């Protein structure tokens, strides 16, 4: 399966520019043979949190129409990163996923809000899981800071996900955490992790280094430190073989953890 990874250079508050750029890059990835295309976090507005009342996508309608049109036309699955949305009088950081027939298969709002970037002051947290299938690929999606909560990703793996998609805006100063956490999440859940970070060089400090990690922990690909469209071949069939090598799922002792760790 060919994964189109789009490390988008997201303009701060520049919704029109961001939609145009995302479309250009999605078309480029599809023309290079991508079958699943993945975008980064909050690509419509960037972290223009104070401007959300003017800029957030109301009920995600624009994003859903955009993704549905492109998935249908190009015959590709799109894990649509995330966009800022307005639902009722609240704002969210929402990920939409469409399959290659133009059907919406996922909607998820970031469950863990990142206080260091004031997300909790502007956004509401979602409280639903994000499991979906892309054809016969059992997958899930979480957003950026969510990866610091292993129990949340484990819940998705226990629910059957074999691939975890992670759109992000992960800043350069903590890029070592990004790499280590993603690799750990892949190893402990024995699944693929496909994590797409954004680029921003001027005001903000995001320098890509998206990653695809295999279920045994091998790093299959690391993105450049600049805007990039990369198409990477992955073999999802190896997940079952890796899970057979060390039977972590069979060896779990949930009864032991429930009263202690999982409070
Ligand atoms: O956890 C981190 O260090 C970065 C998280 C983040 O930037 C985010 O969730 O937007």
Descriptive account of the structure:
Its EC number is 3.5.1.3. Pfam families: CN_hydrolase. This is Omega-amidase. Belongs to the carbon-nitrogen hydrolase superfamily. NIT1/NIT2 family. With 263 residues, the chain is α/β, with parallel strands linked by helices. The chain has one domain: 4-Layer Sandwich (Nitrilase/N-carbamoyl-D-aminoacid amidohydrolase). The chain is 30% helix and 27% strand. Strands 1, 2, 3, 4, 5, 6, 7 and 16 form an 8-stranded mixed beta sheet that branches. A 6-stranded mixed beta sheet has the order 8-9-10-11-14-15, with helices on one face. Bound molecules: 2-oxoglutaric acid. 2-oxoglutaric acid binds at residues 114, 117, 144-145, 148, 169-171, 174, 177.
Strand content: 25-35%
Number of domains: 1
Shape: globular
Number of discrete helical segments: 9
- Rg, rounded, reads 17 Å
EC number: 3.5.1.3
Organism: Lysinibacillus parviboronicapiens
Domain CN hydrolase: 1-236
GO molecular function: omega-amidase activity
């Amino acid at each position: 399966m060919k994964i189109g990874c789009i490390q988008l250079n997201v303009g701060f508050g520049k919704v029109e520019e961001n939609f145009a750029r995302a479309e250009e890059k999605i078309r480029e990835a599809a023309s290079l043979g991508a079958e699943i295309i993945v975008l980064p976090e909050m690509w419509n507005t960037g972290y223009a949190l104070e401007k959300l009342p003017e800029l957030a996508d109301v009920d995600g309608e624009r994003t859903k129409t955009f993704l549905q049109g492109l998935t249908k036309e190009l015959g590709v699955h799109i894990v649509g990163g995330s966009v800022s949305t307005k639902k009722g009088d609240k704002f969210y950081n929402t990920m939409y996923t469409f399959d290659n027939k133009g059907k919406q298969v996922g909607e998820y709002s970031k469950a863990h809000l990142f206080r260091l970037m004031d997300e909790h002051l502007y956004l509401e947290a979602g409280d639903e899981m994000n499991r979906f299938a892309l054809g016969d690929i059992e997958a899930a999606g979480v957003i950026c800071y969510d990866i610091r909560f292993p129990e949340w990703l484990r819940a998705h793996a226990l629910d059957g996900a074999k691939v975890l998609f992670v759109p992000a805006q992960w800043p350069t100063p903590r890029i070592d955490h990004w790499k280590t956490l993603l690799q750990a999440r892949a190893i402990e859940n024995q699944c693929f992790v496909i994590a797409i970070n954004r680029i921003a060089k001027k005001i903000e400090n995001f320098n890509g280094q998206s990653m695809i990690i295999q279920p045994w922990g091998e790093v299959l690909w690391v993105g450049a430190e600049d805007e990039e469209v990369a198409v990477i071949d992955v073999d999802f069939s190896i997940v079952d073989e890796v899970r057979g090598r060390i039977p972590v799922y069979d060896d779990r002792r949930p009864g032991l953890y429930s009263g202690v760790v999982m409070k």
